[in-house]
Specification:
The complex is a heterodimer of chains A (about 325) and B (about 270). Chain A is of the alpha/beta class. Chain A is built from 11 helices and 13 strands. Chain A has helices at about 20-30, 60-70, 90-95, 115-125, 130-140, 155-170, 185-205, 215-220, 240-245, 290-300, 315-325, and strands at about 1-15, 30-45, 50-55, 75-80, 95-100, 175-180, 205-210, 225-230, 230-240, 250-255, 275-280, 280-290, 305-310. Chain A has a 6-stranded mixed beta sheet with strand order 5-6-7-3-8-9, sandwiched between helices. Chain A has a 4-stranded antiparallel beta sheet with strand order 11-12-10-13, with helices on one face. Chain A has a 3-stranded antiparallel beta sheet with strand order 2-1-4. The longest helix of chain A is centred in the middle third of the chain and has 18 residues, at about 185-205. In chain B, helix 2 (about 20-50) packs antiparallel against helix 3, helix 7 packs antiparallel against helix 10 (about 220-225) and helix 7 (about 145-170) packs parallel to helix 11 (about 230-265). The mean pLDDT of chain B is about 85. Chain B has about 270 residues and is mostly helical. The chains are: A alpha/beta (about 325), B mainly alpha (about 270).
Chain lengths: ~325, ~270
């Protein structure tokens, strides 16, 4: 459904030094530098799949999404979305996709959402009955029916985002690109949008590519993630498999009866793990995955343990490490 | 573009114009009355100064009518908004038009035409007030055929101006800001189109050269149909030049669009 092969995008950016003298100089002589936003990116997304695109700011996530929605022309490489080359911008292609950008409103700012939706109905040439049904379903699912006649600029950020979602999904696209759809929203609005996206996926089975800085978005919505770092894909696979491939340690927490005493610093030999925190009666240690049994047995022998738990590292921490790794 | 979409766009632009009532009425007073008053007072002083009854075939009442009709024609042909394409490129809102399965140029043209008609409605009120107070001037010779040809020239003028403005505004694909270019463009068009003073006041050599450029066909040409008309061969030549420039500028606009949209970054990486 979405297939990307060796996609690269280079931006030519004007370098602007600070200060008046440099501003005057730039009138006569401009300095440019190249930004390699995407470096030979390849991936595939199937129908009904939500793939999370994760990366730091400027990693190239938005560039990739914009290329696949046909907004940007890549420098090299190829992509097919629903069988079309996106940047050729065929009407047939544009009728079947949607791009939702959390940071950029696409609805008409000074019109009520209802008017914007009517305009979209004409743009996508939706039959009246289909349009009404679609609008009713979407407004009911997002619980925003009472705000349809309010000007977009007078809505709260969460309400605006819901309207953006409705505008993007009215024509039932088969490929949906979501660029940080929950950015800046409060927890309730974030949860509402996540729940809505999951229900939408179940009922319409589009291919969805989602970028987000919120780990909860990724964990709730995506079974598969693509980690992008400085324009290159460094991981493409199941969310849970990130642990298998990249989680090198687990965390052991032990509690014991002699609560008043702090355990000695050298309680755990350094080759078995690293003590993260110790207080009277409790100890937390980071232990290599292959030495979990050995470290647990060592602690059980040394301390009058009443409770011992072994936990995976936080997935967000692992992904963050992968994003930042140089 | 489907007709129903054009109708919807018209309806929305009217709604938007009427939503901002202060802007509507201030625009009415500011644009129509002030332009007319300045031109009328200036010419009245000139006529009084030299003691003439007529200059280049224009009496003071004819000139009053001319300056009354200028904003009417100019606002329909050139539209109310000056940078509706460059702002979309600069601000990154062009993105939505790249996603919609409609032609960007047609979409913007229809929106701009709808805005122009709202603006023209204001100007028509001024014209009606003028005719009510001063009566119909002798220079106003509107016949049925004159009205039809005038309407056709205004309609072609809107297409011609849109193509010309689109070419200039798309410089925004490469330059950050084209506001100054658009201001300059308006000033040049206003002057060479006969907005500042009727083209008959220009030296005849310059009038001949201007006849081959698109400028007189934006303001002066449609106005002449409302003020006595012109010879059939002159009208045919004028329409021919308009059609030529429309074709040439649209070809140029599409060429710039193909290259410019490859440069477009939609702001941010």
């Amino acid at each position: 459904m979405i297939e990307v092969r060796n996609l690269s995008k280079i931006f030519r950016v004007h370098k602007k030094e600070p200060g008046f003298r440099n501003s005057v100089r730039s009138l006569f002589r401009r300095q440019w530098h190249q930004v390699h936003a995407l470096k030979s990116v390849s991936l595939r997304v199937e129908a009904g799949e939500i793939v999370g695109l994760v990366g730091a700011n400027g990693a190239g996530k938005t560039t990739l999404v914009k290329c696949l929605a046909g907004v940007l022309h890549p420098t090299s490489g190829s992509a097919k979305v629903l069988g079309f080359t996106p940047w050729e911008r065929r009407d047939e292609f544009r009728r079947q996709i949607a791009l939702i950008m959390g940071q950029k409103a696409q609805m008409w700012w000074d019109l009520p959402a209802a008017d914007g939706f009517l305009l979209l109905r004409e743009i996508y040439r939706l039959p009246e009955a289909e349009y009404k049904k679609s609008l009713e379903e979407l407004t009911a699912a997002l619980q925003i029916g009472d705000k349809l006649t309010t000007q977009i600029r007078r809505l709260s950020l969460g309400e605006r985002m819901k309207m953006e979602l409705i505008a993007a999904l009215l024509h039932k696209p088969k490929a949906v690109f979501l660029d940080e759809p929950t950015i800046g929203l409060d927890l309730t609005a974030q949860r509402a949008i996540r729940d809505f996206l999951l229900r939408y996926r179940e009922s319409h089975r589009p291919a969805m590519l989602l970028t987000s800085h919120y780990m909860e978005d990724i964990e709730r919505l995506c079974e598969r993630i693509v980690i992008i770092r400085e324009g290159e894909i460094v991981y493409d696979g199941g969310l849970r498999q990130v642990l298998d491939h990249h989680a090198t340690h687990k965390q052991i927490t032990v509690r014991w009866t002699v609560a008043e005493e702090k355990p000695p610093e050298d309680l755990l030999p350094s080759d078995l793990g690293e003590i993260l925190a110790s207080e009277p009666g409790t100890l937390k240690a980071k232990v290599p995955r292959r030495k979990i049994a050995e470290a647990s047995s060592w602690l059980l022998q040394k301390l009058p343990v009443t409770d011992l738990s072994v936990e995976e590292e936080d997935i967000g921490t692992i992904i963050e490490a992968l994003i930042r790794k140089r | 573009m489907p007709f129903s979409l054009a109708v919807r766009l018209f309806a929305l632009e009217f709604k938007r114009a009427f939503a901002y009532r202060a802007e509507f009425w201030l625009g009415f007073v500011g644009n129509a009355l002030s332009q007319f008053a300045v031109a009328y007072l200036l010419w009245a002083a000139v006529f009084a100064g030299i003691g003439a009854k007529e200059m280049n075939g224009f009496s003071l009442r004819d000139l009053a009518l001319y300056y009354l009709l200028i904003p009417l024609v100019e606002c329909v042909v050139m539209g109310a908004e000056m940078s509706h394409i460059s702002d979309e490129i600069y601000g990154g809102t062009l993105t939505r038009y790249l996603l919609y399965p409609v032609s960007f140029f047609r979409f913007k043209y229809v929106s701009s035409l709808a805005q122009s008609l709202v603006f023209a409605g204001q100007m028509a009120l001024v014209a009606a007030a003028f005719l009510f107070f001063f009566g119909i001037p002798p220079a106003f010779h509107l016949t049925g055929i004159g009205f039809c040809l005038g309407a056709l020239s205004v309609a072609l003028g809107t297409v011609l101006y849109f193509a010309l403005a689109a070419c200039l505004e798309m410089i925004a694909f490469w330059a950050d800001n084209v506001w100054s270019v658009m201001i300059l463009n308006r000033l040049i068009l206003h002057f060479l189109g006969g907005g500042l003073l009727p083209l008959v006041f220009f030296p005849s050599a310059i009038q001949s050269i201007l006849g081959f450029t698109p400028f007189p066909y934006l303001i002066s040409f449609p106005l002449r149909f409302l003020m006595g008309g012109m010879a059939a061969d002159e009208a045919a030549f004028g329409f021919g030049v308009m059609v030529f420039w429309i074709g040439a500028l649209y070809a140029l606009a599409f060429w710039i669009w193909r290259r410019g949209s490859r440069q477009y970054s939609g702001v941010g990486i």
